[in-house]
Amino acid sequence: MRIEGRDYKTIWLDADGRRVHVVDQTLLPHRFATRTLASAGEAARAIADMIVRGAPLIGATGAYGLALAARENVGDSYIEAARAELLATRPTAVNLRWALDRVSSLLLAAPLSERSALAYAEAARIAEEDEACCEAIGVNGAAIIAGVAARKAGDTVNILTHCNAGWLCAVDWGTALAPIYKAARAGVALHVYVDETRPRNQGASLTAFELLNEGVAHTVVADNAGGHLMQHGMVDLVIVGSDRTTRAGDVCNKIGTYLKALAAHENGVPFYVALPGSTVDWSIRDGVKDIPIEERSPREVTHISGQAENGDIVEVRLTPKGSPARNFGFDVTPSRFVTALITERGVCEASESGLGALYPEKLGAFRE
After folding, report:
1. Is 174 left (phi over 0), alpha (psi -120 to 50) or beta?
2. Which of 250, 287, 337, 358 is the most exposed place for a label (fewest CB within 10 A)?
3. How far is CA 354 from the centre of its chain?
4. What b/e sequence results for 94-129 when a residue is b if at least 16 CB atoms lie within 10 Å of its CB, and e otherwise?
5. Which CATH number describes the domain made up of 136-365?
C-alpha cells in the first residue's frame, strides 16, 4: 500500500534472498523506518515487541523466522526450538501457530539438504497467499459498502473501525480496511471514524496513518465515542478484524471490540468482522472460555508516547505513580452480536454452519 506515494508491503526479502525486512510499526505515525531481521531470534523479538503486529502479519513473520532458523541450522532440534521460541511470543492470534505448523511440518519431513530452500519458498508462499486473501476480503466487503451507498442514494457512507486491521496488520491490503480501500478506489463516497484504541493507540497511530496516506476521509475519535455516534445515526456500519475466530463464529479482537458490538446491537448498526480463513480456530467453539487472552505490560496503560512540539518522541506517565494497572490485549465478541463474517471465500453468518459452508474441508476435519 501507499506511503508518501510509494507502494510498500509490510514484509519482504532482502536482495540477498536471505534477510527479511519489515516496517517498524512502533515508530509510526511520526517516523517511517524499516528493520532487518537476520535470525529467528530477531524475528521473535520483532513479534513480541510489536515491531510487527496483526494476526496475518505475525503469521508471515513467524514463517520467515523459521526460514531464517533453517539458514543457520537445519537439524530437527534446532527447527523445533526456533518454532517454540516464535510461538511463545504472542498467545492469542492463531495465525502464528498455523504458519509455524505449516512450515515446520514441511521441513521436518524433508531431507536436510532441501530444508533451507523449502523454508524460504513456503514462507514466501504464505506471504503471497495472505496478500491475495486480503484483497479478496476487500472485494467481498466492498460489495457490502457499495450496497449501503446505493441505499443512501450516493450520500457518504460512515464506517466505524476499532484498532488497526489495515495493510499494516497483514502483508498487504489488510482485513477490515481492505473493503474500505476497495470501495474508495471504486469511487464510493465514504468516511471512517477511527477509534483511538487504547492503550497502544493502534487506531489513532496506525489506522489514521494508513487512511491519510491512502487519501481516505477519516476522523479520529476517543474509544468511548462509538456508542454516542451510533445513537445519533452517525455510523452506517462497523467493520473490525479478528485475531482468532472460533468455529461457532465468536471473534477475538483488540480490547474494546466487544463494547462496540454491544453498542451496535443496541442501535441496530450492522457489525461486520473481516478475517482470512487462517484466523479460524476450528478446534474450539466457545471463544470466551477457550481463547487465551494476552495480558501485556501495565506500562502500556500507565504511560503514553507521542511527539513533542520540538519533534522529539517522548513517553509520559498518565496515572499516579504507584497506582497498579492491568493490560488485557483482547476481548471476545460472541457470535450473536456479529452481523456477518467477511472472508476471502465470501460473506457468511457468524456460526458453525456459516463457516462450514465456506470451509467444508476444515470443518469436516474437526467434527466430533
Report:
1. left
2. 358
3. 22
4. bbbbbbbebbbebbeebeeeebbebbbebbbebbeb
5. 3.40.50.10470
Annotation marks residue 243 as catalytic: yes
- How many CB atoms are closer than 10 A to CB 75? 12
Is the whole-model pTM more than 0.70? Answer: yes
* Residues whose CB falls within 8 Å of the CB of residue 204, separated by 6 or more in sequence, listed in order: 194, 196, 197, 220
Enter the C-alpha cell of residue 351: 456460526
* Cβ pair 210, 168 in contact under 8 A: yes
Which one from 130, 243, 250, 331 is the annotated catalytic residue? 243
261 exposed, middle or buried (CB, 10 Å; 0-12, 13-18, 19+)? buried
How far apart CA 45 and CA 240 sit, in angstroms, is 26
pLDDT attached to residue 6: 83
Confidence of residue 57 (pLDDT cuts 50, 70, 90): very high
- pLDDT greater than 90 at residue 1: no
Tens of pLDDT, residues 267-293: 999 999 999 999 999 999 999 999 999
Binding site residues for substrate, as ranges? 53-55, 90, 202, 253-254
CATH of range 2-129; options 1.20.120.420, 3.40.630.30, 1.10.1200.10, 1.20.1290.10? 1.20.120.420
Residues of CATH 1.20.120.420 domain(s) within the chain?
2-129
d(CA 74, CA 86): 16
Binding residues: 53-55, 90, 202, 253-254
Contact 102, 141 (CB under 8 A): no
- Please give the average per-residue pLDDT across 119-147, as a whole number: 97
250: its cell numbers: 465468536
Query: CA torsion angle for 148, 154, 158, 161 (degrees, to 10)?
Result: 60
